[in-house]
Design a protein that fits this description.
This protein has 416 residues and is an alpha/beta fold. It is built from 14 helices and 14 strands. The chain has two domains: 168 residues, Aspartate Aminotransferase, domain 1; 220 residues, Aspartate Aminotransferase, domain 2.
């Protein structure tokens, strides 16, 4: 007999299955034309699969989702409340309100060394919206997209849903998960049009060196590629320095995508922004009109306060993530386990190669047996199979308990 957890697993994976057989007492639905093939067949993120399972179980320690456990800082809440009370609850311009884009331009100049005016900037429905619209603006279905491996699974999902081919390029552990340029040269083709980069990196925690960034730009230039730079974790850096590719881009081939979610604990506010040369920014704003109209007006007011006012909250959260990294590393070292120490972000890859199961099996079994949720490595690409990703965005108490249970589970299932 199946356990409750097995039924939950089957339910979460139902989207992959064949159509359900007719059930007794339920009228048959009329036969209709099939749904769009690409989104139906699009693989789902393993992060969300595990999250769905975990949310159906009591008492789970959530180390699978990249969501800061901090409250949104008070001055941001105040700005949003003031905006609502003042009636700022209507549409804005498709590209976002001018005052926010001016504030973003100042931030880009001071923090990222990117020269931009409001005409270069589009405020988007989260950085996910910014990435999706940028790819819509740049790619035709016959084009190819270079994506990092390991890399955030949503890059692949966005491309797959539009029938765009992806070509993974390896990030090698032996080089600190910096790109393998020989591999990049070997996989680029005349159809390749866009290169996605992500530093600080999800899931590896790598921070690309300035030399790496300059080499990526040179590679993009030599093959006439657009470079889409995902900089969602730009403020969460422990070692090294974050370098924005657009700061070294005289040609305007870089499209920079930023998020308010991670740095300011604003995941639910769904606010991000894109910086690109004006004709690309205008096209992204045009596409936003078709899909979202504009980003949430209240969230835009909150974002303006976040960027324009005291940044000590950002530093406080970064320092807390560093302390959590230290805690996690100390536990893993004590248990003599193999792991990758991140230079930035709040993620950490732990090797499970000692166990006789793949990363999806491991994550499901860990959740069922220990009530600890982690992300399966394989969802981030072939290069991450043999790992699970642990999020350090939970409290130190939960991190300690969760990683101790993870270590215990690995030891229990280590091959003899």
């Amino acid at each position: 007999m199946k356990s409750l957890f097995e039924y939950l697993c089957a339910s979460v994976s139902l989207w992959r299955s064949t159509p359900c057989k007719k059930q007794v007492g339920i009228p048959a639905l009329p036969i209709m034309k099939p749904l769009a093939k690409a989104p139906v067949e699009m693989p789902r993120s393993g992060i969300r699969e595990i999250l769905d399972l975990a949310q159906a179980l009591p008492g789970v320690i959530h180390l699978e989702i990249g969501e800061p456990d901090f409250a949104t800082p008070e001055h941001i809440l105040t700005a949003a409340n003031d905006a609502m009370r003042a009636g700022f609850t209507r549409y804005t311009a498709n590209a976002g309100m001018l005052s926010l884009r001016q504030t973003i331009a100042t931030k880009l100049a001071n923090h990222n060394r990117i020269a931009a005016t409001p005409d270069h900037i589009v405020v988007t429905h989260g950085s996910m919206g910014g990435l999706a619209l940028a790819l819509l603006a740049l790619l035709e279905p016959d084009d190819e997209l270079l994506v990092p491996d390991p890399g955030w699974p949503n890059y692949y999902m966005m491309a797959f849903s539009r029938g765009i081919s992806t070509r993974p390029y390896p990030l090698l552990r032996k080089t600190g998960f910096q790109p393998d340029f020989a591999a990049l040269e070997s996989i680029v083709t005349p159809k390749t049009k866009v290169l996605i980069t992500n530093s600080p990196s999800n899931p590896t925690g790598a921070v690309f060196t300035e030399n790496t960034v300059m080499s990526l730009l040179q590679f993009a230039n030599s093959h006439d590629l657009y470079l889409v730079s995902d900089e969602a974790y730009e403020h969460i850096v422990f070692e090294g320095t974050h370098t924005s590719p657009a700061a070294h881009d005289p040609d305007g081939r870089v499209i920079s995508v930023f998020s308010m979610s991670k740095s300011y604990a604003m995941t639910g506010w769904r606010i991000g922004y894109v910086a690109a040369r004006p004709e690309i920014a205008a096209l992204i704003a045009k596409l936003q009109e078709a899909y979202y109209a504009c980003a949430c007006s209240i969230s835009q007011k909150a974002a303006e306060a976040a960027l324009a006012k005291d940044q000590s909250c950002v530093r406080m959260m970064r320092d807390a993530y560093l302390q959590r990294r230290t805690l996690a590393v100390s536990i893993l070292k004590r248990h003599h386990l193999d792991f990758c120490t991140p230079q930035g972000t709040f993620y950490l890859l732990v090797s499970i190669t000692k166990c006789d199961m793949d990363s999806y099996q491991f994550a499901r079994n860990l959740l069922e047996k220990k009530k600890v949720a982690v992300a399966p490595g394989a969802t981030f690409g072939r290069a991450a199979e043999g790992y699970v990703r642990v999020s350090l965005a939970a409290s130190p108490e939960l991190i300690e308990t969760g990683i101790e249970s993870l270590c215990e589970f690995i030891h229990e299932h280590t091959r003899g």
